[in-house]
Amino acid sequence: RREPLSLVNLKKKNEETGEEEIASRLDHCKAKATRHIFLIRHSQYNLDGRADKDRTLTPLGREQAELTGHRLASLGLKFDQIIHSSMTRATETTEIISKHLPGVKKISTDLLREGAPIEPDPPVSHWKPEAVQYYEDGARIEAAFRNFIHRADAKQEEDSYEIFVCHANVIRYIVCRALQFPPEGWLRLSLNNGSITHLVIRPNGRVALRALGDTGFMPPDKITRT
């Protein structure tokens, strides 16, 4: 419901002429800029931690975050913000990445926390969360998609470049939804730690995937998927 025509009151008429000024009102609602969304999966972390606060980055994970930060900085883009999951591993990854992007503001959100977005089809044997988890996490992750993945606001004049540091399940689900693929297929995508996924959202609402889970900037011995 971000198509300009859906944002215009077609019944409203000009008081002087009595004619609808649809064209001018449509122009006022149309996006002008392109949004570049960089979805970063957190780096490798301690799988033995029982609580979230104990699931900190491993030494290798910290190296991966440094490599990811260096790669993002090397693109020479003017990043507008870094929005990250409030979970420990995503927060720590963000802190390391942000050192390579001084001055870029950081925003934490619970919407991007890891979870079970939707029951995969076909099902898998190695990962079977409780059914209630899909209802709890799915609504939140869908809310994250609707809140963050959309065309630029009509008031935005220049193209924007935004970084989102979160989790594999969240990124995979967002990619499927953004490309209008069946979201039940999200588990068929695989993402390395510290990888970069690049979505482009044009003013007309069309979405393109420029990179999925890119870690080509890392040496082979630094690449993990845990």
From TrEMBL:
GO BP terms in the entry: positive regulation of mitochondrial fission; programmed cell death
UniProt KW Lipid biosynthesis keyword: no
Keywords linked to the UniProt accession: Hydrolase, Membrane, Mitochondrion, Mitochondrion outer membrane, Necrosis
Membrane as UniProt keyword: yes
Reaction(s) catalysed (UniProt annotation): O-phospho-L-threonyl-[protein] + H2O = L-threonyl-[protein] + phosphate; O-phospho-L-seryl-[protein] + H2O = L-seryl-[protein] + phosphate
Compartments (UniProt record): Mitochondrion outer membrane
TM ranges: none
Signal sequence range: none
InterPro entries membership: His_Pase_superF_clade-1, His_PPase_superfam, Mito_Ser/Thr_phosphatase
EC number(s) recorded for this UniProt protein: 3.1.3.16
Membership in a protein family: Belongs to the phosphoglycerate mutase family. BPG-dependent PGAM subfamily.
Protein name per its UniProtKB record: Serine/threonine-protein phosphatase PGAM5, mitochondrial
Recorded name of the encoding gene: Pgam5
